[in-house]
Predict the 3D structure of the following.
Amino acid sequence: MRPAVVAKILSLLCAIVSLFMAFPALWSLADGSSDLFPLLAGMGTGLGVSALLFAAGFKAKAGDLGVREAFAVVSLSWVLASAIGGIPYLLYGTVPTYTEAFFEAMSGFTTTGATVLTDIQSNPRGILFWRDLTQWLGGMGIIVLSLAVLPFLKVGGMQLYKAEVPSPMPEKITPRVHQTALLLWGVYLLLSLLQASALLLGGMNLFEALTHTFGTMATGGFSPLNRSIGQYGNAYFEWVITLFMFLAGTNFALHFLALRGDLGAWWRNEEFRFYVKLLALSVLVAAAFLFSSGTYGSFSDSIRYGAFQVVSIVTTTGFVTADFGLWPNFLQFLLLLLMFAGGCAGSTVGGIKSMRIMVLGKHVKTELQRLLHPKAIFTVRVGGKVLEREVISSVTAFFVMYIGLFALAALVMAALGLDVLSAIASAAAAIGNIGPALGSVGPSSNYAHVPAAGKWVLSFCMLLGRLEIYTVMMLFLPGTWKR
């Protein structure tokens, strides 16, 4: 481990997070609201920490990051971003303690969308803009953003890219990793502009169009409104956001290929086809049950609300248009299961992700076939390519760790006083980066009542989910810190 290299890169990440506070500060300045000082103080604190880290790593030599340094940088960057990002909430009085401030910031940067705020709209626009901007930054990844400017630090970034990009098989779309980062952010920015424009055309004001776009493209789900998207009761807004949640849950490399003219890239991708089929089947089942149970009077309304909520949960966005905690028990359980799914690898979503679910399913099938034909040779193929045993082993280990950590977190939350449903749902929503869950942490409630210890546990779960477990768990191995 080379601490100086880690400190040098963390200084850049810290500076990026801090400087982005200038954007919400402009809203505060325009409104003449009292949240200007908290935002500027947060920025100043962050830049001060950045300067200290840069000084600590000033003598770091050029060269590629090692695997251990990459794991440390990625995990610590999210912790550091949340520690700094929560300062404005505390100084303004949005939350009463630093525990709540850190929880809200971690929820933002990890694009989880869980909140402790009981009256969101009572906060000034600067604070609310910062709250959603943290999600937009965390969506494509502060790390991927930093890769675009890593040459400034004269430190290579491929190991960093592998540690951050949420995919079991990360691939660069260009030979140079910083060019890959720039292209991914370009696609991300373009889709964000398209969604904001579509919402503006529908009559949404600029502030709400931007903040809801941030929450959508990051699949984060923070809204400046108390009742999320459901507060509008506007079908046009709901369908626009549903479309862009779907796009945000798709591998951004496929969007890049489509923008270059290869429109068939989407459907040729086996994971994308699985993702579409999962969503289509889930939406139809949800709509059928909503209509047959009389929850909504027409099938069109059942499709409208069912589609929005299913896409929101599968893409781990967490926007809501209805209190699904009041839906039939079957649908509540279906949504709970879908919290584990996630969208495509290489997107901004959390969860296990479609790629891993596909690989696991194919692996189970080949093992069953091997029992029938012990002398035959079977392989697992994805997209026509045979997967190496190492990839299958990695996916299987990830699944075991994911379920094990979820179960442990749920057990801890139950020990802290939450009822069984709330404990299970809160753990699933945190590690899946979803936000609203079921029970006492459902769409009509929030996480304010969760004990302080529970908030720290869930914050850790959010970090685990956002960074794909492996990256964080590596920090707990003694070998990671040895020279």
Strands lie at 63-64, 155-156, 381-382, 385-386. DSSP finds 22 helices and four strands in the chain.
